[in-house]
Specification:
There is one protein chain. It is built from 4 helices and 17 strands. The strands form 5 sheets. Strands 1, 3, 6, 15 and 16 form a 5-stranded antiparallel β-sheet that branches. Helix 2 crosses helix 4. The protein has a domain of 154 residues: Roll (C8orf32 fold). The chain has 276 residues and is α+β, with helices and mostly antiparallel strands.
């Protein structure tokens, strides 16, 4: 599918503030950026960086006191890999590539060690594979209320499990945590999301199954073919759309995604957004 998408962010810097942005769509196998434009008004120099291990596209800016508008626009074409769910098995930990091993371990927002007992009692007897991760998503969807304002930047998966309320960020953290407790590598994905209402940046997660990363969205708010990746990491700390060091105020952001070309037929539920 092909999409036009973008975001506009407005800030008032109260003192010299260094900002690190992660709002630009990834240009990787399975997702191709056809055109794009990044601008800051008033114009200032920016510094781009793309770590090869994640393909996240970070951009560093130094904002002096004043008002700024940051705008990103792009046309992106996606070609996800699709597989029948019942053909996707879990990979034994002893056979996992070393490059994905760090996605087995607890992190700041995903305390898989603290929820392991519940996870094994609830999901341990389910046949390993794509279906078990989908069962995790179904449990989260049925047992956690999607409620704006119910969490903040300090809310972890353990908090969400306790309060049973959160937003997409929290649903993704809980899915990652449950997978990791079962020995399934899982990682956080920030994204632009087609058909998300109201429009905003979105969060989903990927689980490593059958030799590649597969997409899961426990919120059930976005079709898998409508996810356009921005960043991946252990949790939201690695993929925040804006991190700043200094002092500033922000205005409400604007995010948009429109389909230029739609797929000829619906995709099955097992979707991989990467080449491997």
């Amino acid at each position: 599918m092909k999409f036009t998408l973008g975001s506009e962010l407005q800030y008032t810097a109260l003192r010299d503030t260094t900002m690190i942005l992660n709002v630009e769509a990834q240009d990787v196998p399975g997702q191709r950026v056809l055109t794009e434009q990044f601008s800051v008004t008033p114009q200032i120099d920016t510094e781009a960086h793309q770590p090869p291990e994640t393909s996240n596209r970070y951009r560093r800016l130094l904002l002096h006191p004043g008002d700024y508008t940051i705008r990103y626009e792009a046309t992106v074409e996606t070609a996800p890999f699709v597989q029948l769910p019942d053909r996707i098995d879990e990979t034994p930990i002893a056979e996992l590539p070393l490059s994905v091993m760090n996605h087995l371990f607890p992190s700041r927002y995903c305390e898989s060690d603290q929820l392991a007992r519940f996870v094994w009692r609830r999901f341990g007897d389910i046949e390993p594979g794509h279906g078990r991760v989908d069962a995790i998503c179904e449990w989260i969807h049925r047992n956690v209320d999607y409620e704006a304002g119910s969490s903040d930047g300090s809310t972890s998966a353990y908090d969400t499990f306790t309060t049973r309320a959160g937003v997409c960020r929290d649903f993704a953290h809980l899915g990652i945590t449950f997978c990791q407790a079962l020995g399934i590598p899982a990682r956080y994905v920030s994204a632009y999301a087609w058909k998300l209402v109201p429009q905003d940046f979105h969060a989903v997660f990927e689980a490593y199954l059958g030799g590649r990363w597969y997409l899961f969205d426990a919120t059930r708010l976005v079709p898998p073919e409508g996810v356009i990746r921005i960043g991946v990491g252990r949790d939201a700390a690695d993929t925040a759309f804006a991190t700043f060091f200094g002092e500033l105020h922000s205005a409400p952001k604007s995010v948009w995604v429109n389909a230029v070309e739609e797929a000829g037929s619906p995709l099955v539920q097992a979707v991989s957004l990467t080449s491997s």
